[in-house]
Design brief:
Blueprint (H helix, E strand, L loop, with lengths): L1 E4 L1 H20 L2 H23 L9 E8 L3 E2 L3 E10 L2 H8 L2 E6 L1 H4 L7 E4 L3 E9 L4 E13 L5 E7 L3 E6 L9 H4 L2 H6 L12 E3 L11 H7 L3 E3 L9 E5 L5 H20 L4 E5 L15 H9 L10 H14 L2 H4 L3 E6 L4 H8 L6 E8 L4 H16 L3 E6 L4 H9 L4
Parallel strand pairs: 3-10, 13-14, 13-15, 15-16, 16-17
Antiparallel strand pairs: 1-9, 2-4, 4-7, 5-8, 6-7, 8-9, 8-10, 11-12
Length: 413
């Protein structure tokens, strides 16, 4: 609770002190009385503010905050609505004399004061204002700041009401062209072997992580000794793992995350089961399926909220290699592995290249473009992955994601 005199209150107090001293110096009783009166007014108002706490309305006021949309993508706007409702007669009386303002993280306010529209009714008030999500992450919003001024306007009381909220900001994503005709064809279906059921299997295939258990064919599963599920028109769609490293520079990290998220969503929209594996993740997330609807997209994007840049280039490479070791090779057999990585050492390239042995490897090798050495290291990494059978596209941080994606789809081994 912050209580302090207003400019008017300070002016009255100063005038009271001057009048009191002048009255004593001149021996004027009237000046002394005026000085005491002027000085007593802000002092009495301050004491009253201490006794009559404006925040006692917490027991009679309820605050509800809503953000739409939530989560929001970086670079987009959202609207915040705060409802303050009085629950009793005393709360309505306190509500009438309160002024409202909101606190927001710089990543939502841009460092500027929030301009809100306030609508009042006898028993409630509504505060609306826009925010601009400038950066991916989870950012605080609130609590509501309430201000009350006494009837003479000499003392202002300020405090907070309600609780703090968190706004989730997903990375900026770009709609990429559907890749199904390029990445999945008849040769891929043959390569899948037992994963693609024949007519003799009565349209059954092996169970994959994330499949709906209601599709399990229990009689055939018991006969074979392994779980089998009924296939559908998407049965031949390979599962996809999108692996991304986290660079040292923050701008490169945001660009990498946006590109990887866009690639993951493009594969999901094409019907592939998809999982997003950030470097350094302890346990790879399960695959999600487009049939889950918006929840599938949200599950992928939520994995990016708490990612942060690597501390050093060595840490970034070590995190990528650790993520590759944690991927269960029995589950990646026949998968498409899409990777967004930076330059790696020869030893790192050798260890990373084996990730595509059990399926298809597609890599976007990133260079920051700040010096010739960075471009040379990126070229060496791309060459090593191509020799290992990967399809590779070399890109520069900040390039248009669509151009990077099309270059990857048009690349050759």
């Amino acid at each position: 609770m912050d209580r302090r005199p207003t400019p008017r209150g300070w002016a009255l107090a100063a005038a009271g002190v001057v009048g009191l001293q002048a009255g004593i110096g001149l021996g004027s009783l009237d000046l002394v009385r005026v000085g005491v009166l002027l000085l007593a007014l802000p002092v009495a108002a301050l004491v009253a503010a201490l006794v009559v706490d404006a925040t006692r309305g917490r027991r009679g006021l309820e605050v509800h905050r809503e953000v739409r949309p939530d989560p929001v993508h970086a670079g987009q706007d959202a609207e915040v609505r705060v409802d303050i409702r009085a629950t009793d007669r005393a709360g309505r009386a306190r509500l009438a004399g309160l002024r409202f303002s909101e606190q927001a993280a710089v990543e939502l306010s841009g460092g500027r004061a929030l301009r809100a529209r306030v609508a009042r009714a006898p028993d409630h008030a509504t505060v609306r204002y826009p925010v601009h999500a400038s950066q991916r992450g989870r950012w605080p919003l609130g609590p509501l700041v309430v201000t009350r001024t006494d009837m003479f306007g000499v003392v202002r009381s300020r405090t907070t009401l309600g609780t703090e909220s968190r706004v989730a900001v997903w990375p900026a994503v770009v709609a990429l062209p559907a890749p199904s005709d390029v990445l999945v064809g008849e040769p891929d279906r043959v390569a899948l072997g037992a994963r693609t059921p024949s007519t003799d299997d009565a349209n059954l295939r092996d169970y994959r992580d994330g499949d709906d258990l209601r599709r399990v064919h229990w009689r055939s599963s018991a006969r074979r000794g392994a779980l089998l599920v009924r296939s559908d028109e998407r049965a031949g769609m390979r599962p996809v793992t999108v692996l991304l490293d986290l660079p040292v520079r923050a701008t490169a990290t945001e660009w990498t995350i946006s590109l990887a998220a866009s690639m993951a969503l493009a594969m999901l929209d094409s019907g592939h089961p998809v999982r997003l594996v950030p470097a350094g993740s302890r346990t790879p997330a399960p695959h999600v399926h487009a049939r889950s609807g918006p929840e599938a997209r949200a599950a992928l994007l939520d994995l990016t909220l708490d990612l942060s840049p690597a501390r050093t280039a060595n840490d970034a490479e070590a995190a990528v290699l650790d993520a590759t070791r944690r991927l269960d090779t029995t589950r990646t057999a026949g998968e498409i592995v899409l990777a967004v990585v930076g330059p790696m050492s020869p030893a790192g390239c050798g260890a990373f290249a084996h990730l595509g042995d059990a399926g298809q490897g597609w890599a976007v090798v990133r260079a920051d473009g700040r010096n010739a050495g960075d471009a040379r290291e990126s070229q060496l990494t791309a060459t090593a992955l191509r020799r290992a059978g990967w399809r590779v596209a070399q890109v520069t941080t900040g390039e248009d994601p669509v151009a990077c994606w099309l270059r990857l789809l048009g690349s050759t081994r």
